Amino acid sequence: MEKIDLRKQLKHLYNPPVDNPVFVEVPDFNYLMIDGRGLPDGPDAIAAIEALYAVAYTIKFTIKKEKDIDFGVMPLESLWWSDDMNDFIHTNKANWQWIYLIMQPNFITSSMVEQAIREVSKKKNPAAIEKIRFAQLSEGKAAQIMHIGPYSAEGPNIEKIHSLIKGSGHKFDGAIQKHHEIYLSDPRRIPPEKWKTVIRQPFV
């Protein structure tokens, strides 16, 4: 059986330095996505995450059975912004917009995703299953850092990223080049002070 470890292959994107942000070039990747608005821990976000994982694992086990390929489900990721970016800066979370997403290997097709959605709908029918879409994300140039600790303490590391981008003569529009987080820890099993989160900011 062929085994694929995308996190290992893409280590430079999923294991940045802790102390200082670095520049990376992010290729185009395909994702399972759900769009929403409001609190990161609100019912809509929780429902989105549940549906994404259900479909992601269904795809994994189907490919393992039918194609004899074993690959690990990638970590949950999210994009964040607001129509009025002051709401984002001042943490008015009820007005935040988000996309939760899980990367898929490049051999996964839209028909495979549609099949998995049908299977999950029949077996579990999670609340947000109909909101899942399969799409490509293009980020290109970005700066990123590894944050260790609770999400509420990300501020200083976000500032480091923004300072590096602006200090290098680049810029970004937070509503277009969206704030990106990659969650490497399971918050149900690991205490907040040990959570690992990749914080990424694309720029132009």
TrEMBL record:
Alphabetical list of InterPro entries matching this protein: GyrI-like, GyrI-like_CCH_Lin2189-like, Reg_factor_effector_dom_sf
- Identify this protein by name: GyrI-like small molecule binding domain-containing protein
Its domain of life reads Bacteria
> Can you give the residue ranges of the GyrI-like small molecule binding domain?
20-199
